[in-house]
Specification:
Number of strands: 15
Distance between the termini: 37 Å
Number of helices: 16
Helix content: 40-55%
Largest sheet: 3 strands, antiparallel
Bound molecules: 2-acetamido-2-deoxy-beta-D-glucopyranose
Strand content: 5-15%
Mean pLDDT: 78
Shape: elongated
Structural class: mainly alpha
Strand order of the largest sheet: 5-6-7
């Protein structure tokens, strides 16, 4: 169902103009850097990104100093009149002891400055910082300004982090040509762009780590005649053209697939809810099998609603994926908890039928306790392991966990095992039915057979998604046009199939609804009969777990 949802939503980024990137505002005055300490620069840029990732609280009101990375330390938003205090930067400090640096926020929300250029000095003297050349300072200052408008951290994805570090070493810290006008080398969050002569167009391979980008295609960036990178007319910010990396047809294809999911899940939720109401309304059907159905339906309904939220609120909006809010990550975990419990309740259905037919004697209330533990309890253990392990690897938690991770097996492993067990149970049930019941043809065994048949149809149906997953075609291949819609329909209409087979096609339910319908009809037709009709309903014999027992005794 959801494990393989690698949706290529990032396409939309391009249209939204989120790939906008800024570069040096005074590009022509790019400095010659002969003595750049590349290691220091790398540390500083990394520290900048860590600062941006961790210090997210922005200053509110005029009287607060904004969060800032000054080249050495990360300063949190601080109210005016207060003194902020941080440790010396480990990468730049030569001091033996652990020292602290302080900085005062002045009235009006301005950080106090000291030193000649008002930057990088603070009261860092205690730290005995490494010497930075004037050129290094300028390069750093320019780069930090450049980084400011990149939306995602290059450290969010390991491939992009590698590219960024390579870029710092090979491009950003090196001088451009001296004899002509050129656009300076730059990093836009995804790719590293070489310094380029004015009037030229530079090409880079599309980054492979961006979902939906076709490897083998090229992105380009235009260096204008005046030696500045092309500005996007809508935003006035520099812009790398990645639109060539994606396929517009592909984008609308993904959109259609998402619509299938939303439609399928919505229909399933409606069908399941109606079924649940029916089960609760007709109290005469109170028995273990129906209780299991109810739990299965509840887990289906919650899971499908969460999928609808996912498809309508999350993957349609790249900003949501990028900001990677905690709520969005929790949604991923919850969806998969209820998905697991779904499969566990399906397992309980099979287990119950098996116990009933093969083992014959069942302590109904005791077995129900075990089903609750299996159906709602065991998924908690699995999901806790999964969320715990996966959340401890930052590169596995980007984009609301949308990408498949190397820990996905923690979820899919147990599901496959229990599906297999369920299948074995059902084969055994069929064996018992065929050998023992061939001669018997009472209505009760007929009913049991129907229950078995419903479950028998459902198990492979629910497993189908796992059966076809290994055959998932490469993105962009022609087979995908067949595979994806089928996969979407199989996943999203499962709830509908379950409610049809367990409720709407259930002979008992049909009979009860018919009876109720006739009663209501009679009541309307003859007013004096009203009391009689109501009494009939309420005095109808209710026999908890009666039906199943009857089935077994008939066996
Ligand atoms: C950037 O420049 C270096 C050295 O001049 C060269 O080896 C590399 O291929 C260039 N990269 C691109 C993408 O043009
Ligand atoms: C972009 O800059 C130009 C000139 O500086 C200005 O005329 C134009 O209004 C700006 N556009 C936007 C969207 O800011
Ligand atoms: C990006 O490149 C494509 C293909 O060359 C071109 O059609 C499109 O106009 C470019 N976009 C912008 C904003 O220049």
């Amino acid at each position: 169902m959801g494990w393989t949802n690698s949706y290529s939503i990032l396409f939309k980024l391009l249209e939204l103009g989120l790939v906008l990137v800024v570069h040096l505002s005074d590009s022509s005055s790019r400095i010659e850097a002969d003595e750049v300490d590349k290691v220091l620069l790398r540390h500083q840029l990394k520290a900048y990104w860590m600062c941006r990732l961790n210090v997210t609280q922005y200053a509110k009101g005029n009287d607060t100093c904004p969060p800032e990375f000054d080249g050495w330390g990360c300063w949190e938003a601080t109210p005016a009149g207060q003194v902020a205090k941080i440790e010396c930067p480990s990468f730049g400090s030569l001091a033996e002891d652990k020292n602290f640096v302080t900085r005062t926020c002045q009235t009006g929300g301005k950080w106090a400055t000291s030193g000649t250029d008002g930057k990088y000095d603070g009261d860092y003297f205690r730290c005995q910082l490494k010497e930075m050349s004037a050129n290094h300072k300028k390069i750093l200052e320019n780069l930090l300004r450049e980084m400011d408008d990149i939306k995602t951290s290059p450290y969010a994805v390991s491939e992009s982090a590698q590219e960024f570090e390579r870029c710092i070493n090979d491009v950003l810290s090196n001088p451009g040509p001296t004899d002509k006008l050129y656009c300076p080398g730059t990093f836009d969050g995804w790719s590293c762009w070489n310094a380029t002569s004015a009037g030229d167009v530079v090409y880079v391979p599309c980054p492979v780590f961006v979902t939906g980008f076709h490897p083998g295609r090229y992105a380009h960036k235009v260096c204008e005649e005046d030696g500045s990178w092309f500005l996007h007319p809508e935003t006035n910010k520099t812009w790398s053209n990645y639109t060539t990396c994606i396929d517009k047809d592909d984008l609308s294809f993904r959109d259609k697939i998402n619509k299938i999911y939303i439609a399928g899940y919505s229909i399933s939720v409606i069908a399941l809810s109606v079924s649940l109401v029916i089960f609760f309304y007709f109290r005469s059907m109170k028995c273990t099998r129906i209780t299991i159905h109810k739990n299965l339906f509840v887990s289906f309904i919650i899971n499908n609603i969460l999928w609808i939220v996912w498809y309508t609120e999350v993957i349609r909006y790249p900003e949501v994926l990028f900001s990677n809010k905690i709520a969005c990550q929790v949604l991923h975990v919850l969806v998969h908890y209820f998905l697991l419990s779904n499969y566990m309740w399906m397992f309980c259905e099979g287990l119950y039928l098996h116990t009933l037919l093969v083992i014959a004697f069942v302590a109904e209330d005791k077995i129900m306790k075990w089903f609750y533990i299996l159906g709602w309890g065991s998924p908690i253990i699995v999901i806790t392991c999964y969320a715990g392990i996966r959340s401890s690897y930052p590169e596995d938690t980007v984009f609301c966990w949308i990408e498949e991770s190397r820990f996905t097996w923690i979820l899919s492993g147990p599901v496959c095992i229990f599906m297999l067990l369920n299948f074995i149970f059902l084969i055994n049930i069929v064996r018992v039915l065929v050998t023992k019941l061939r001669a018997v043809n009472s209505p009760d065994t007929h009913q049991t057979r129907k229950a078995v048949r419903a479950t028998l149809i459902l198990i492979p149906l629910l497993g189908l998604h796992y059966i076809i997953t290994p055959f998932r075609p490469e993105p962009g291949s022609p087979e995908e046009a067949v595979y994806e819609p089928i996969s979407a329909a199989v996943a999203s209409f499962q709830g509908l199939c379950v409610s049809l087979l367990f409720c709407f096609f259930n002979g008992e339910v049909i009979a009860l609804i018919k009876k109720k319908w006739q009663q209501t009809f009679t009541t309307w037709g003859n007013d004096t009969n009203r009391n009689y009709a109501v009494t009939t309903m309420s005095t109808m014999p209710t026999t908890p777990s009666h039906h199943d027992r009857e089935d077994t005794t008939a066996v």
